[in-house]
Amino acid sequence: MSSHAFDDAVALEPLGDGRFRGHTHPAYANMVGPFGGITAATLLRAVEQHPDVLGAPLSLTVNFAGPVADGEFEIEAVPVRTNRSTQHWSLTLTQGGAIATTATAVFGERRDTWSETETLAPDVAGPEQLEQQRMPDIIVWARNYEMRFADGIMTPGAGQASSSSTLWMRDAPPRPLDFASLAALCDVFYPRIFLRSGQMTPAGTVTLTIYFHADAQQLVAQGDAHLLATARGHRFNDGYFDQSATVWGHDGHLLASTHQLVYFKS
Amino acid sequence: MSSHAFDDAVALEPLGDGRFRGHTHPAYANMVGPFGGITAATLLRAVEQHPDVLGAPLSLTVNFAGPVADGEFEIEAVPVRTNRSTQHWSLTLTQGGAIATTATAVFGERRDTWSETETLAPDVAGPEQLEQQRMPDIIVWARNYEMRFADGIMTPGAGQASSSSTLWMRDAPPRPLDFASLAALCDVFYPRIFLRSGQMTPAGTVTLTIYFHADAQQLVAQGDAHLLATARGHRFNDGYFDQSATVWGHDGHLLASTHQLVYFKS
């Protein structure tokens, strides 16, 4: 049985002292360098594989400082502070000694508390009732994701009044959900400027933050079912915009909320 | 003429090599250590004062790794990568050699592009029509902020169904807006769990991210007028919740969007 391309893409070879060697994967190529979501997933995976890791991911911030070239890279993961129930990490991804990506992550242990979800999943048709959308072939990484839009499909040549999209999504072929694949799924919402302008203008994530609301058990419970997500932008101006998204499980649990600042040309 | 307490609180003494010495300020004390917003503002100020800084703030992520004790601290600001129009920073705040706070920031230059604000300011009564709220005296830092709520005031002893608050806010006494004071204002929204539970349960920000949508000129145009903000939480569970807020100028411009993950006990 061959492994899923996702597992190959985030695979890391431990080099000791919190350093890991990885390799870009052609299946997750973007127009320039790899899909940001796979870089985020790989950084998270470095912490997960670190011998000193405490608990599970609570948050991840990834700063896309420069392009990642096809080929090998090295990740260094440093546990800068370990408390009783939380652990703070600083990470760098380098190629030939130059920093391409920086990140910080918070891991920790969860305790049972009062719980409530205030941002509920929108009431939309199920994934089986919605058509699968294909991205243009030029966006190689998108072939690894099944996306079925309830609303907010980009229409080439026609700008839209809203940047909001709601879609069912999962890995293609399906793969059981884990923290790394959820991190990557938090970046599948193509730049909201595409929806507003109706054009694939040059755009790229500058910084991405993910808050994880689920524990490992809740992720396992998702299996390889579709997740539901809504994404939208807030303000577009002077070459940058921000977009936020929320990701629910097929069972309606809010699994992650994610935010990013995106560079664009117009 | 004496300076504003805010300016004293974020004042830094350059030590060379990107290092700065700062000092906690009693006026910005929180229940444990300083108000997180003043720490965020001070970290941003370190980059602003660095001789190699490029442009203005685009984003800031601050990770509250451990408590900051009253007294001196040192900030190190490292420009890890400088591109043509963006610059990526890594920052640490240490006391006695121990890391209390880490941060990453992106600074850059803005260019004129297609612009639109999709998340508009809510239509609420003006600040002059709303009563000024006083926080309990135990929250010392809150005395430096004027807050006039349009909705979502915490009612001690009575939990509420929504964690949303909309308020006018500014420094008290009024002070012309700049990036550092805007960063601090992005953290004045007390933990949303207070609203939901009706109790000031133990809670603290774990990680805070701010996206700046305005340039220096737009901030100067605000003068010391009230800003309008809406904050709300998404999911509360297992000891953590996230909250997001948007901050508009008195002229309706979206100045910042901000997100945080908060630890709580219940």
Could you characterize what this model shows?
2 copies of one chain form a homodimer. The first copy, chain A, is mostly beta strands. Helices cover 15% and strands 40% of the residues of chain A. Chain A contains 5 helices and 13 strands. Chain A has helices spanning 5-9, 36-49, 179-185, 192-197, 216-222; strands at residues 13-16, 19-23, 56-64, 72-82, 86-95, 98-108, 116-117, 145-151, 165-171, 203-212, 227-237, 240-248, 254-264. In chain A, strands 1-2-4-5-6-3-10-13-12-11-9-8 form a 12-stranded antiparallel beta sheet. In chain A, a hairpin with a 3-residue loop joins β4 (72-82) and β5. The longest helix of chain A has 14 residues, at 36-49. The radius of gyration of chain A is 18 Å and the shape is globular. The model of chain A has no long low-confidence stretch (mean pLDDT 96). At the A-B interface, β3, β5, β6, β7 and β10 of A face β3, β5, β6, β7 and β10 of B. β11 (227-237) of chain A pairs antiparallel with β7 of chain B.
Biggest sheet: strand arrangement of chain A: 1-2-4-5-6-3-10-13-12-11-9-8
* Structural class assignment of chain A: mainly beta
Gyration radius of chain A, in Å: 18 Å
Name the overall outline of chain A: globular
| pLDDT averaged residue by residue of chain A | 96
C-alpha end-to-end distance of chain A: 46 Å
Helical region count of chain A? Answer: 5
Point out poorly predicted stretches of chain A: none
Number of strands of chain A: 13
How much helix is in the residues of chain A? 10-25%
Regarding quaternary structure, what we see is: homodimer
Q: What fraction of the residues of chain A are assigned to beta strands by DSSP?
A: 35-45%
Order of helices and strands of chain A: HEEHEEEEEEEHHEHEEE
Largest interface: A-B, 61 and 61 residues
Question: Which sheet architecture does the biggest sheet of chain A show?
Answer: 12 strands, antiparallel
